[in-house]
Amino acid sequence: MDLGKTFLSWPVVRQLTGDDPLGRGKAAQSARTAALQPRTKTADRVVDSICPYCAVGCGQKVYVKDEKVVQIEGDPNSPVSRGRLCPKGSASEQLVNSPGRVTKVRYRRPYGTDWEDLDLDVAIDMIADRVVETRNRTWQDLDDQGHKVRRTLGFASLGGATLDNEENYLIKKLFTALGAVQIENQARI
Amino acid sequence: MAECHPVGFQWVMEAKARGAKVIHIDPRFTRTSAVSDTHVPLRAGSDIAFLGGVVRYILENELYFEEYVKAYTNASFLVGEEFVDSEDLGGLFSGYDEAKATYDPTSWGYAGASEGSVGKGGAGGADKGHAEGHSLGSGGPSVDPHTIQRDETLQHPRSVFQVLKRHYARYTPEMVEEVCGVPKELFLEVCEAVTANSGRERTTCWVYSVGWTHHSVGVQYIRGSAIIQLLLGNMGRPGGGILALRGHASIQGSTDIPTLFNILPGYLPMPKAGADESFESYLDTIRNHEQKGFWANAESYSVSLQKAWWGEKATVDNGWAFDYLPRISGDHGTYRTVLDMNDGKVDGYFLLGQNPAVGSAHARLQRLGMAQLTWLVVRDLNMIESATYWKDGPEIETGELKTEEIGTEVFFLPAAAHTEKSGTFTQTQRMLQWHHKAVDPPGDCRSELEFFHLLGQKLRERLRDSELERDRPLLDLTWDYPVDEKGEPSADAVLREINGFGPDGQLLNSYLQMKPDGSTSGGCWIYTGVYADGVNQSARRKPGSEQSWVAPDWGWAWPLNRRQLYNRASADPDGKPWSERKALVWWDEDQAKWVGHDVPDFEGTKPPSYRPPEGATGPAALAGDDPFVMQADGKGWLYAPSGLLDGPMPVHYEPSESPVRNAMYHQQGNPTRETFARKDNLQNPSAGEPGADVFPYVCTTYRLTEHHTAGGLSRWLPYLSELQPEFFCEVSPEHARERGLEHLGWATIVTARTAIEARVLVTDRVVPLKVGGKTIHQVGLPYHWGVGGDAVVSGDAANDLFGLSLDPNVHIQESKVASCDIVPGRRPRGPELLRFVEDYRSRAGITVETGNQRFTS
Fold this sequence. Notes:
The structure holds 2 protein chains of 2 kinds.
Chain A (H helix, E strand, L loop, with lengths): L2 H6 L2 H7 L13 H5 L3 H4 L2 E6 L8 E7 L2 E7 L12 H4 L1 H5 L9 E3 L7 E2 L2 H19 E4 L5 E5 L2 E4 L6 H14 L4 E2 L5
Chain B lengths: L9 H8 L5 E3 L5 H5 L2 E3 L6 H14 L5 H7 L23 E2 L4 E2 L28 H4 L24 H8 L5 H8 L3 H13 L9 E3 L1 H4 L4 H14 L10 E3 L8 H4 L6 E2 L3 E2 L9 H8 L11 H13 L23 H9 L5 E5 L3 H4 L3 H8 L4 E6 L4 H8 L1 H5 L10 E6 L8 E4 L4 E5 L12 H15 L9 H4 L15 H9 L56 E2 L27 E4 L4 E4 L77 E2 L21 E6 L15 H6 L4 E4 L1 H7 L6 E5 L4 E8 L6 E3 L2 E3 L1 E5 L22 E2 L11 E7 L6 H14 L13
Parallel strand pairs in B: 1-2, 5-6, 9-10, 10-11, 18-24, 19-21
Antiparallel strand pairs in B: 3-4, 7-8, 12-13, 13-14, 15-16, 17-25, 18-26, 20-21, 20-26, 22-23
């Protein structure tokens, strides 16, 4: 055992002999603390992103290690935000890694009292079947004044303000081609 | 702004550090008020009286920017003789139809307007069902500029300037005090600050959010501020403008590329049943052949969209597949749809990152409507209340709904987070910013891009052999996006399609290259240029510190990377900056082009001296000093001769539910607001109706820094839930004494819809206001919480209190103000709650007709 090293590394000794006489800095630091590194230092890569909350559009840096998001920081290069994030933006690592986040499809059958499991592909097939059936049953070629409308009022959609432009584009394009018109989002609210 | 857009607010603080004066006008005291020079508390729903008062102050004291007003606004245009102002008709304009509660706006037009040239364009007209105001988007309605009569001296009694002056003559400081509850001295302090900080050397900007839009007369709030900014010369200039701070990452994008019923990408209107039978007649509602400006090229934008969607199948012979578009008839907005759900008329519903069971007005009606659906698809990160209302919603507790009796089939599909997909958000300044995918989404989580791509493929497979004409639009749709090895479609390919291609397959650089002959395509004309020079301009991230203050090389703003709209107005009619201090773009005589810090929002080589030849139309008809290039007459509108359904100028009306009688007009509320007189949408009686005293207080809703709207992105996070764990109401100490409310105790807040409970915060942040000689108390309610079993924190939803009463132009609900009662203690549980609310209704004598009389007889 290296008595000298152990003794000299005692915090009180370091406090009295080093440049931290009040013992509130280096002198009080343990070896474990000294060896710690921020997750931003040990990340495998850093990916440019944008905050998903409000429409200020703050720049984000997403730190990834072992294919997991380990930290999200403000991007100092952004002329909008200059590296800053608000409490929500700062919490966005927890948003993507939230303990409460649902990652499996859930299904509630008609009159059911609880959720059931369902395979994702089966779910999308079932949804496609529902859309086709509803659309066929509620299709209108003409309105009651004989004007052409070629539409369905049998189903509706709400949402888009939290999504990407490209996603809104496909939603509007597909639903319009289907003849669905009750397509709305938060901008109406 | 500090509360809901904190990081954007750093720029307000920068300005303040440089000497700017910051004024916060809001019923509520917030983190913004705390650091503003002045906080002006006013009564919720009284803003037009306040703004009108500012207009009067500017005009009476001759503090308007005369050269700007004369050159760049329609102040000198003459209004027709048939027009009668609301001042002379007890709060109604000419053309009101009592039976229909709508206006025929014909009499509002400019003098000498040719038949049909006013009130028609941009899907305009008087049919309120079509949300025309909204469908006009970035353009104005069409007018024929050639017939306009002007009086450059602004003295003609029918000039817009004089009409405006008469219209606002009664909006005196004393009237503002009486209506808004703002002391005259405080109001005048605002007027003095705003006018002293406007003109050649200085500019003032107005910032608003949904506190201005959530009203039955919300569009006219914004118009009120537009009039002020045009009179003071604050539009198109640095530090000026009217800034809409939007609350969702891409709510601007989802308006530009709309998941909205009434418009197509780039603010092209959806075709209307009966009106738009042919492509030609549809186009004529967007662009009057006589008009000025860039909407005259609507045919190129529209044909390019049809080509992007239907490619080879859109031909000149089939009218560019125009008939593939469904037709709308009237209001298909989200509130109309939810009422239809309650009537059993809607089978299916997709919820895509939205939580109406908490976040939409009359949240109770939202949940009851969803319980009538046959199927529901919820796509979200978390198990939101809109996905679980069938087992743990408030109506299960009251016994109104029983889980075993709800026949709705519910699919919950987990969504990918922003870090798990690539794509663009359009932020509040119209700037597109690309975010790169960092990791794969976990488990079954998928992007909307993948889900909808796959759903489209599956639907096309199912209908592949169909010979029905109705299925052609789906089967002929361009839907072949490249996918990666995991099945995720390329967002980059979608953005390229949105940008558009030329005849040679090259990406377009500008919407000016679009042609009406089918040789170009583009999914959203205002976004053309986001892929200019084959580069994803939205992904540019040149550090802000390495470029000018305009920062043009970070992201990409529509249109054509212009960071400030209508910036031609930053220079005087001769093309020189109004002042060196406020220079933005200007005409460079030597280079014979517009230059400056920003991309000029004007034809680059059109000199200030340009005057259109006789008979010119479209962009060529814009003179060198017509800065408002999307307007049909090139001018900023102090007076709107068409395009609005509730009047050419803002008028103060009381909210749909108000304990206060309109002090200015006989007409109490917006006479054209959209109401729904139904048993499931009862309204409180307002002042002047029997029973109004049962609901003597005003309530308003708002957000907190630590949460996001209906909580779907915040109440599931332990960090944020710990910071703001519980639903509360803010009341003044005087109000607490009057009602026996205890700080940190419970209160029950009641309207005709329901009663909810909240913890009480007694605080002098809420100020009792003197209105019309009586004290008005306001109750503040943050609306983030909802009843459910899955979030980290839950609570009653403030939106349960509000009924449906909508702005007629845009069908947005009045959820920033209602009347209410508040009593100490928790609300009754179970069926007792229904009896408690029923007792209130009967005491107030509420019927289906209560509060739904739009015309005040």
